[in-house]
Amino acid sequence: MAKRLASVPSDxxxxxxxKTAGQSWYARSARDVLSSLEASAEGLSxxxxxxxxxxxxxxxxxxxxxxxxxxxxxxxxxxxxxxxxLAATVVTLAIQHWADAIVIGIVVALNTVVGFVQEYxxxxxxxxxxxxTTPRAMVRRDGGQHRVDSGELxxxxxxxxEAGDIVPADLRLLGSNRLAIDESLLTGESVPVAKSPExxxxxxxxxxTGQKNMAFMGTAxxxxxxxxxxxxxxxxxxxxxxxxxxxxxxxxxxPLQSRMKRFGWLVSIAVVGASVLAFAVGLTLxxxxxxxxxxxxxxxxxxxxxxxxxxxSIALAVGVRRxxxxxxxxxxxxxxxxxxxxxxxxxxxxxxxxxxxxxxxxIWAGGTRYSVTGDGxxxxxxxxxxxxxxxxxxxxxxxxxxxxxxxPNEASLLWGEGLLIPTGDPxxxxxxxxxxxxxxxxxxxxxxxxxxxxxxxDANWMFSATVHSHNGREVVFVKGAPERVLEMCDAxxxxxxxxxxxxxxxxxxxxxxxxxxxxxxxxxxxEGAEVAQEVREGQxxxxxxxxxxxxxxxxxxxxxxxxxxxxRAGIRVMMVTGDNPTTAAAIAEKVGITGKSPExxxxxxxxxxxxxxxxxVACHVSVYARVRPTQKLRLVNTLRRQxxxxxxxxxxxxxxxxxxxxxxxxxxxxxxxxxxxxxxEMVLTDDNFATxxxxxxxxxxxxxxxxxxxxxxxxxxxxxxxxxxxxLALRWPLPLLPAQILWLNLVTNGIEDVGLAFEPGEREQYRxxxxxPKEGVLSRVFxxxxxxxxxxxxxxxxxxxxxxWGGGATIEYARVTALTTLVMFQIFHVLNCxxxxxxxxxxxxxxxxxxxxxxxxxxxxxxxxxxxxxxQFLLRLEPLGLETWGRIAMxxxxxxxxxxxxxxxxxxxxxxxxxxxxxxxxxx
Length: 924
Known about the structure:
Elements: H1 10-20, H2 30-36, H3 46-56, H4 69-76, H5 80-94, H6 98-122, H7 125-132, E1 136-141, E2 144-149, E3 158-162, E4 170-182, H8 184-187, E5 193-194, E6 214-215, E7 220-232, H9 238-248, H10 255-284, H11 289-303, H12 307-325, E8 328-330, H13 334-341, E9 344-347, E10 359-365, E11 368-372, E12 383-385, E13 388-389, H14 396-406, E14 412-416, E15 419-423, H15 426-437, H16 442-448, E16 451-458, E17 463-470, E18 473-480, H17 482-488, E19 489-494, E20 497-499, H18 503-515, E21 519-527, H19 529-536, E22 543-552, H20 559-568, E23 572-576, H21 581-591, E24 600-602, H22 603-607, H23 611-618, E25 623-625, H24 629-641, E26 646-650, H25 656-661, E27 664-668, H26 674-678, E28 682-684, H27 689-729, H28 738-756, H29 780-806, H30 811-832, H31 849-867, H32 869-875, H33 882-911, H34 913-916
Parallel strand pairs: 9-23, 9-26, 19-22, 23-25, 24-25, 26-27, 27-28
Antiparallel strand pairs: 1-2, 1-3, 3-7, 4-5, 4-6, 4-7, 8-28, 10-11, 10-22, 11-12, 12-13, 14-15, 16-17, 17-18, 18-21, 19-20, 21-22
Helix pairs in contact: 4-6, 5-6, 5-10, 6-12, 10-11, 10-27, 11-28, 12-27, 12-28, 13-27, 14-15, 20-27, 27-28, 27-29, 27-30, 28-30, 28-31, 29-30, 29-33, 30-31, 30-33
C-alpha cells in the first residue's frame, strides 16, 4: 500500500485507498467509471472540487521526509579506517608530531567533504520527479473550460488533452480523436501509443503498456486530442508508485565500501594488538615507560595505512577521468570500482543496445524478398536482392510498396548538412527513409499522384490512407496492420501484373519477418471513386495487395563486441525492456545475449511467480519483456539476494527505482530523464551499451591499482612491525626511532603508493571473472606475498643493523643504515607491485612515469635529509659511506628476487583462475 499523503488525515486517506484500490479502470465502461467516481462528462462544480481536495489531498507527490544533511555528513565518517585515522590524529597531536597530524587530518577532511557533496546530490533525486509532475491542465468545471494547476485536480475531474500536453494525472479516456501518447517516460519505448476509449474485456489483465484507454501522469500527448476523467492522483498514479519506490529504495553498499570496512576492522585489531604487545614486551624487558609509549605510538601510526584513503580516492579519480574520455561520466567515486566488480548487467533495449531509430530492413513485394542496407537515416543505403542493388523502377510491386509507405505518411524528412533530419512518428519516418534509399521522395510522388484526401491512422481502423488523382481516376494508397490490409484485398500485384491473392502465403511471410524481430506493415492500393469513398468511410474493399515492409530498431555499433567482451570477463548480460517479447528475443539473439530462440519472460508472468520461482528463473532466463518498473526493481533485488553485484542501465522515470537499488545505475545522457540521471551513479554521454563495458574495464583497473597500493602498504608495514618486535624479543636496541618510523612512512609510502594509482590496466584482468564480494581487498596470493615480503624486509633490515652495530659503528649510524635499508627495500618493492602476475622486468617503467618520478623523488628526499641540518637533528640522521650503500643495495634487491620466485610459483594458479575460481552466485 502506498505511503500516506503527508497533507491528508489517515482516516480520509484510508477512505480514498479503499475506494480506489484494485480498480481495473481499463476494463470498465466509461459510464461505469463516471458512476463510480460520482462524476459526469460535464465536469465537477467548484464546491465539489474543494470538498474532494479536502478528502483526497492535492495532486502532488510528497513521500517521506528528506534526508538530513547532518545525517549525510555523519555517514561519511562511519568507517573503521576513518576511526583509526581520527584516533591517530589525536595521538599525533598529543605527542606533537604536527606534520603527521596535519596530513592525516587533511585525508579525513577531504574524504568527508567529497563524500558529503556526492551523496547530498544523490538524495535530491526526488526533486527532479516533482518538477515533472506539476503541469497545468484544461478541465471542465462549472459548465465551462478552465486551465488550472494540476495540483488542484481531483478524482472525477474531466481533463481535455491535445498535442503537446503533459498528462496531469491518471485518466480513463472518455473520447479520443487520433490520440497518441508518448509513454517512454514510463515504459522506455519511444514509439507513441495509439489510444481509444473502448473498455477492454473484463477478464483482461494487462500492465500500463496494454491499457489503451488510459493516459498516465507525466506522459506526453504526441498527436491528436482526447478527453478523460481523473481516476487517480498523487501517489495513487503510476508515477506516484514509482516515486514511492524511489524514495523508499536505499542505495546498497558498494563492494569497495564493504571490503574497506572489513579491511579497516582487521587493521584496527592488528594495530592495537601489535602496539599493546610491543609496549608490554618493552616494559617486561626493562625499557622505560615513556620510551615504550612513544615506540608503541610510532608502531601504531606507521602500521596504519593512512595513505590508503588518499590512494583510493586518487585511483578512483583517475578512473573517473579515464571513463570520461570513454563517454562515461561518474557521479560517485565508489561507482568506479563497483563497475569492475559487477557480475550482472541489466540493460534496457531501446537506445542502449539499439539505435532508438526504426529502420526498414526487409521488403517483400511481388513474391520476392528484398533487403534494405544502411543504418537508420543513412542516405547511402540501397535496396538489394541477393546482394545486388535493385532499380525499383523495374519492379512495379516494389516501387508501389515503397510509394504506399511514403504517401499516407504524416512524418517528414528534411536535408540538413548532408543528413536527413526526421520529424514525426518513428515508424513513419522509417518508411520515408526506405523510400529515400530507392530515391523516392514524397514531393516527387505527389507530382505524379496529386493529393485529394487523407485518412489519418485510427486505432480502430488499423490503417491510414491517402486518395490521389492519377490519369483522370482516383487512386488510393493504404498502409496498416497486415491482417487488416489483407481483409481489404482480393488480388495481389505480381511482377507481371494483377494475380491471385493467397492469404496464407502473405501470413507465412509476415511470420517469417516477425521471427526476425521486425515490425511488419502491409501496403495496398486501389482505383476508382467507389474504392476511394469506402476508404474515406473506413471500410475499403477490393484493393490490390502490394507488399510488406519489416522494420526494427537495429543494434548499435559496437554493442555485439561489448556483449561478447562482458561474457569473456564473466559478466552476464540480461535485457529488461518494455517492448514486446518477439522483438526483445530477436535483438537479444542479434547482439549475442542469448543463443537462437531465446526463452523470454514477461512482466505479467513475473507477477505470478513467487520469490523462489523468480530466483530460479533469473538463473537461466536473460530476456524480460513488457516489464513494469516495480517488476524491474524486483528482478534487481532478486539478483542482489543471490549475491550478484548488479549494474542497471535506464533512461526513463520508470527505470529510476531499479537504478537506485542496483549497486550501480547507468543513465542515458542524451535520452535520459533528470530523474534517471539523479538516481544513477554513472551517466553515459553516448547512450551506448559499449560504453558500459568500457567503464567496466576502467573499473577493474581502478580496483586493481587500489589492491596493488594496499599490498605495497601492508607488506611494508609488516616489515617495519616485525623488525621492531624482533628487536625487542632479541633484547636489542630499537633499530628505528619513533621519529624515523614516521619519516619512513612519509617519504616512501606517501609518494610511491600514489604513483601506483596511475598504473595502466592489464589485458589479463579484463578476462578474469568478477571477484566474489566476500573476497577482501587483498587476494590470497597478495596476502601470502605480503607476509613473505614483510619477513624479507625485516630480516634484511635487522641484518644490516646488526652488521653495522656489531662491526663497531655507532648506534646512530646503525639506525640510519636500518632506516635506509627499509627505504631501499620499498623503492625496489614498488616495482613488484605493478603487476600481480607479470615480472617486474616485463613492465616498461615509462608506462607509468608518475611512479618512476615519485620513486626518484622519494630516494632524493631521503638522501637529502641525511645532509640537511634540521632533518639531521630531528631524525638523528647522518651520511652513509659508499660501502654501506653497496651492501644496502644488494640486500634490498633481494626483495625483487623473492617476489619473482613467488610469481613464478603462483602464476599457473592465477592463469587458471577463470576456469577454477570463477565465482557465480546463481543456484543453477
